[in-house]
Records
---
Amino acid sequence: MKEKIMTVTFTMDEDPHIFGNWTNSSAGSKFNNLSTLLNEDDYQKSNVQSSITVEEYDLISVLCLTILLSFIILATIAGNVFVLIAILRERNLQTLSNYLVFSLAIADLMVACLVMPIGAQYEVMNQEWILGSVMCEIWTSGDVLCCTASILHLVAIAVDRYCAVTNINYVQYRSTRRVGLMIAAVWCVSFIVSFAPILGWKDQEFLLRVQKDKKCLVSQDIGYQIFATCATFYVPLIIILILYWRIYQVVRKRIRHRPGHAIRPAALLPLVCAENVPSMTALNGSAKMISGTKLRQKSRDNLESKRERKAAKTLAIITGVFVMCWLPFFIMALLMAICPDLIPDSRLFSLFLWLGYANSTLNPLIYTVFSPDFKKAFSKLFCGKTYPQRTAPSSRQGCLSTVDTVF
C-alpha cells in the first residue's frame, strides 16, 4: 500500500501539469456554468420586467379607452334626453317640424343605450366577441336599425325644410298625419334594412367568423352590403345634398330679389307681427304716423330672409357633420364587401365606426348652438332662467314666415 502511494505521489510529482490542467479545466467549467446561470437569470429578469411594462401599458390603454368611450356614451344620452325634455316641457317647441327632431332624438338615444355599450365592451376586449352568435346577430341588427333611423331622420328633416322654403303654402297643409307618416316611413325602412340578415340574408362565413375568429360583424354578403349601404347612406346623402343645394338656390334668389325699398330700412323701426299698430317713420325730417299695415309686408320679408338664411346655414352644418361622421365608415364597409381579401386595420375600423356613432352625440349640440328656442329651454332647465312665453306662429296669422325654422 505504501509503495502504491509513493508511486502515485511520484507520478504526481513527476508530472505536475496533470493536476494543474485538471484544476484549471474544472474551475473554467464551473465559471462558465456560473456565467451561463447568471446570464439566464438576467434574461429571465429582463423578460419579467418587459412583461410587466407591456401589461402596464395595456392596462393604461384599456383604462383610457374605457374612459373615452364612457364619456361619449354618457354625453350622447344626456344630450338627447335634454332635447326630449325641452320639447316636452316647452310649448313653443312643440311644432310639427320638431316632431321630426323628437323622433331623431329617440333614435340617437337608442344608439347610446342599446348599441354603444356593447360596442364599447367589444372594443375593450380587443375586438374579441364572447357573447355568442345569436347575440351578435341581435346587436348588429340593432346597430343597423338605430343608425339607419338616425340618418333617415336627417333626410326627413331636409325634405321638410325644402318644402317649407320652396312652397309658401306648405305650412297650411302640413299636418300631424303627414309628419307622422314621414316618421313611420323612416322607421319602416330602418327595420327592413336591419332585420334582413336575421331573416337569412347573410354570408356563409358569419357563424365561423363569430365562433372561431371571435369577430362580430354585420353580414358581409356583397348583395346585402350594397343594398344596406345604399339605403342607409349613399341614397340619403345624395337626397340631402340635392335638397340643400335647392334650398341654397331659393334662399339666394329671395335675398337678391327682395322687394324695392320704397322706404329705407334704416328709417324703419322693427315690426314684428303688428296688427294695425301705428309705426314711426322718418319723413322729411319729421315724425309722422302711418298705418302698420303698410309696413307689415316689409318687416315680414326681412324676418323671412333672416329665417331662411339661418335655416340654410343650420342645414348645411348638420349635413356637413353627417358626411364627416359617416362617409369614412361606409366607404370602408362597401370596400370590405366588394374585396373580401381587404382586411382593414382593426384600430382604423374602430375609429371610423365610433366616428359614425359620434354623429348621435353631435346632433343635440347643433340644436343648442343654432336654436334660440332650444337655448332658452336649456337655460331654463339648467339655470332656472325664465323667458317671456312666445306663441308659436300660426299659418293663418299674417306674420307667418314661409320658413319656420326647426333648429
Note: The beta strands are 279-283, 286-290.
---
Amino acid sequence: MRGRPPKGKPRCTMCNDKKHPLNYVLPTQNGKKEFCSVNCLTEFRKEYVKPKQPHNGCANCDNIIKGSPVKQENQDSTAKNFCSTVCLNKHQRKEQTKKTVFGDVQVKNPVFDWDNYLKETSSSAAPTYCFKQHEVSPENEFKPSMKLEAVDPRNITSMCIATVIGVVGPRIRLRLDGGDDKNDFWRLVDSTELKPIGYTEKKGGMLQPPLGFRMNGSLFPMFLVKTLNGAFYSPETAFKSEPDTPTDNLFKVGQKLEAVDKKNPHLICVATIGDVNKNNIFVTFDGWRGAFDYWCSYDSRDIFPVGWCIKSGHPLQPPGHKGSRYSGGRPNSAQSSANMKQHFNDSINLTPDSASDLEAGIQESCSVFINHECKCGPFMDSSKLFELPKQLGPGLVQKVLKDTIQHLVNTAHDIQSVTTLMKKQGDSTCTITATYEGKSRVFKLPKIEKTDEFWDYIRTLLEDLSCCKNLLSPALNVCSECKLEKNVNEVITNDSKSIKRHGSPESSTPDEVTLVTKKPCTTEPEMEAASSTTPTEGPLRLPVDPAEWSVEDVIQHINCIDLQLNTFADLFRKHEIDGKALLLLNSDTMMKYMGLKLGPALKLQNLINRLKPRRR
C-alpha cells in the first residue's frame, strides 16, 4: 500500500535554507513567516515594509520577490506582483473559485448619492469647518499584525501594547495585547491616542497591562518582552498629526453628516444633528431606531462631513428602514444587501465571529454617568474616582455592566471587601478580574440584558457599598444631596476662617470643645460661633488636648472639618488612629502605610498641623 509522501523539511523564508532550525517567527497579514536567524528576519522586515512602498511581497504567498516579479494586469489598470508562476496560478484558481461561489454578481460597495438624498429630504450638509477632521484624509500605512502603543479606551490613564486587527480607509481596528477579543476598538490614523513602540519609555513612562489582563499582573513585564520580541512594529511615518479643533460649536439642528455607530463601531452611517446643547450635539441615525442615537462633543473624532467616506475609501451605510437595524437591508433587495455586507467584512478582515454579530437581534443598550462629586463610601478611593471617565457607554447592557463593576473594583481601598459585597454572582460569560493578596481572581457577573434589571442591580450594589445613590446614574445630573452637604461644609469653613481672622486671642483657647451639629461631629474651638445658629440635639464635648481623643473622637472631628474625608472613617478604625496616633502622622506615612493618595494625605496633614498648637 502506497502511503502519503513525506513532507519536505521547512525552509527559511528569506534564504531558503533548510539545514538550520527555524527559531524566529514574524507574523504577517498572510500568516506567520519562519526564519533561521535574526539576520534573515531583519532583512525580510526591511524588504517587506519600505518607505513610500505599500507592499513589497508576493500577492499570493506574501514572500519577498527576488528578481523580476511575475505580473498580472487587471481590468482596472492595476497590477499584482507574484514571486513565481506557481503563485500566479494559485491566485488565479482562488479568484476563479470566488466567481463560482458568487456567480456573475460583482461584489461592490454601493456609492451613496448624497446630492439626491439632500434634495429629497430638503436638508443641508453640515459645513466641513464644523468638524475636527482633515480636509484630505491622511494615508493609512498600517497593516494587520503591526504593533503600536495605544491608550486603553476603558482605562484612559494607561498606555498599552496593541495589535492592528483590521484596516479600512483611514481607520484601524485594534486589539490590546493580553486582553480578549471582545473589546476591539477603532481609531483614526491621526488619533493622538496612537503612538509608535518606544514612545512611552522615551517620555519616562511605563506600559501598563490592559483592563481585564488575562494573566497575573506580576507576569506582565515578561509578557511584554515576549510580545515585542521579533514583533512587526508600525513605522513612525504611519502616525499622523491630529487636525485642529474648531473654535466653537457651529452645528445646527437638521444638518446632515456621517457618524460612527457606537454599538457597531466598524460602521459609519448617514446621520442628522437632532439637537445642540452648548458644546454637545445629539447624533440621530436616519432610518434607524432611536436606541442607536447618542450625545457627543462637537469636536468628536467619530463624526465626519458629508462625502468623507467616499473620499477616504470607507464604506458608508445608507439610511435604513424603521424597525430592525440588522434585517439585512431593503426588503426587496436581499441579494445586493448580502453582497454589500460580504464586501465590507472582507475589506476590514473581520473574523466569522465578528461578521456574525451583524445578524444578531436588537438588544437593549444603556449608558452610565459617574458623578465625581458624590460620596463614594468607605470602600472606595475618592481620588481614584476622579480618574474615571464621566460616562460609560452607550453599549449593550452586559458590556456596560462589566465595565462599570470593573471600574468600581479598581477604585476600591480594599478590593477583597468590595468583591465580597458582590453577592449576586452569575453563570454568564461576562467576568471581571480582581487582584489582591498577590493573586488575580475572576468573578462572574449575573446575566443581565434588560435596562431595568441593570439599574436594580446597580442600586443594590451602591447601597451595599454605602455610596451615594446618585454616584452612578442614567443621566448626567448634579446630586442635590451631596451638593447640599458640600455647601454646608463650605459655609462652616468660611465662617471659621473669618472668626479666626477677627476673633481675639483669648476667645480661641477655651477649656473644652463644643460640638453643635445635627449629628455628632467635632469642630475646632474657633468654629463655635459659626455653629451656634445650627439646630442642635445637645452639644458633645471633646477634651482640649487632642492626644486624649479616642478613635471615634478623631473620626468625628475630621468629618466636621471636611465631609469628603468621611470616606476614610473605616480606614482610621482599621488602623486604630486615636488622638496620639493622629498627631504622629505625616503625609508620607499616610501614603505609604495607609494607601492614601497625595491630595487626601495633604488635607489630613494640614488638619493635624492645626491641632498641634493646642498641646503647647
Note: Residues 480-502 form the longest helix (23 residues).
---
Amino acid sequence: MSLLLPIIFLLAATLIFVPLAKRYAANTVLGYLIAGLLLGSSVSGLIEDPQLINQLLHFGMIAVMFFVGFAFRPQQLWLERRGILKNSGLQLSIITPILIGVCFLLFNDVLTSLILGFALALSAVALPLQLLEKKQQLNNKLGQATLATLQFQAFVAVVLIVLFPLLEDTASTRHGIAYFAAIIATFSGLFLASRYLVRPAFRFLARKNSIHLIPVLSLLVLLSVILIMDILNIHMLISAFLGGLLLAETEFKSEVERILEPFKDAATGLFFLAIGLGLSLHPLIQTPLLIIASIFGLVVIKAAVVTAISYYQQRHAKLSTLFAITLAQSGELSFILLKLAESENLLTKDLLQPTLLIVFGSMLLTPLLYWLFDSKVLPKLQKQVAVQIDDVPQHPIFILGFGRFGQVIARALHAQGKQFSVIDSNQPDADFIEQYGHRFFDADVTQVENLRAAGIEYCKLLIVAIDDVEDSMNLARHLRLNYPDLTLFVRARDRHHAHLLNDLGVQHIWRETYASSLNMAQQALIETGLSVEDAHIQIERFKQEDEKLLMQQHWSHDQQDVLENYPSAIAELEYLFENTKTLRSDRLSNDQNTQSDANSLNETS
C-alpha cells in the first residue's frame, strides 16, 4: 500500500499539470518537472522515499537514452558532417570553453568545471522539438537545423558517458585500453548482428504474418543488448542507446515506432518526474540572486553564440534568433550527465542541486522567450520593415504563398526568365531566390500593409497559392474590391472553395490536385487499353463535363441548398458519380445513334 499511494499521487499530478503545460507552454516536459517538484520534499513532501525516486530516475534515464538512440541517424549525421561540424560543432566548441571558464572562476576546480561545462552546453531534446511541432516548423529550415544540432549533441553525450570512467579517481576495470577496445568491438558486433540477425528476424515475422510479435522481438533485442553490455561492464545507458539505434535501423522502424509511440511520452515523462521529485529549492531560497543570475547567464551565453554563428552562416536575423532561443536551454542530456557524475562521485550533492535548478530554470525560460519573440517582438519588427521598404522592384508577377503549390509555379516562371515577387511568412529560408533577380518578402500575406509595401501597385498578375480557405477568401475579397483590374489566379482547395471564389467574381481558379489527378487518370486509361489519343480525348471530354457540372452547381446553389443537398463530401461525390454516369450513358447512346445512322446510309447507298 505504501508504494501504491505515491503512484496515485504521481498519476494525479501528471493528469493535472501536463495538460496545463501543453496548453500554456506548448510542451509536456515542464508539466512533468513541475508535477514532480510539487510532490517532492521541497514543496508538499508527499513523496520522499529516496529509493523510489532513484528507481524512477534509473528507469527514466534508460528510457530517455533508448528513445534518443531510436531517433539517432548515423548515416544522416555522416552525410551532413561538414555542415553539422561547421554549425553544431562550432557552437559547442565555443559555448563549452566559455562555460568551463565561468565554472572555473566560481569553483577553482578543473574536474568540476569540465563536467559542468560539458553538461550545461548540451541542449534539451524534447522541449525544442515540441515547441517547433506546436508551431508546425519541424519540416522547415529552422526545424531541420534544430534536429541536426540535437543529433550531434546526442552523439557528444554518448561519447561523454563512455569517457566518464576516465575521470574517476579510483582504479577501475573501465580505465584500461581493453575497456575501450571492448566498446568498439561491441559496437561493430552489434551493427553486424543488426544486419544479419535482427533484420532477417523482422522479415521472417513479416513473411509468416506475425506482425503482432514485433513488440516481443523488439523487447528481446533490447534486453539482449543490455545483457551483452552488462557482461562487458559497459554502462547501461550506452546499452539503451544502442538498443534504440538497432531497432531504428530496420526496415520495420515505422511499425516499431507505431508500437512505441503511446509509451514514449510516459516513459520519458517518468524521467522528468523523477528529476522534479529530487529537486531541492533550498539553494534558490539561500542564494536566489546567484541562481537567477546563473539561469539568465546560461541562456544569454548560449543564445548569443548560436545567434552569432547562425547569422554569420545564414544572414537571416529571424531564423538565427529563433534557432538560438530554441537551443538556449540545457535539458535531459544535461540532467543525465550530472546525475551520472554524482553516481560516479565526481560531483557533490551540494553542487549538484544548484546546477539542476539552473537547468530547470533555463527550460522554464525557453517557452517564454520563444513566445515573446514570436508573438510580440517579431510582428513589430515586420511592421517596421514593411514601412521602411522603399526600394521595391517593379515586378509584374506576385506569388502569395510559397509552399509546394507556389514553388512549382515559381520554378516554371524562373525557367522562362520571368521576374516575380514572393510573399510568405512560413518559408524564411526561401530568400535565396533573390540571387536570381526575384524578390522575397518574409511577411504575412493577409496583412494589407505588407502587400502595399511589397509594391502591389506595380503588379499585373497576382497568383494566390495559399492553402488556407479562410485566408484565401479574405485575400481574394480584398483584391477584388481594391484592385479590380488586377489579373487574379487563385488556388482552390476543393469544389466548394471554387464556388465561393466564383461568387467573388474570380475568373481564373485552379483546384489544387485537379490537374495531377487528370494526368494520372489519363495514364490509367492508356494502361487499360486505350490509345494515347483516345485517352486524351476522353479526359478532355471529362474536363468539359466536370466544368459544366461545376457551373451548374454554382448557378443553382445557395448556402442552405448546399447544406441540404451535400451535407458531406461523400454526398457531393455521390451526386458527381451519378451525373457522370448519366452524361456518359447519354454520350454513348448518342454515339450509338450516330453509328446506326451511318450504317443506314451505307446500306442505302
Note: Residues 256 and 262 are 11 Å apart (CA to CA).
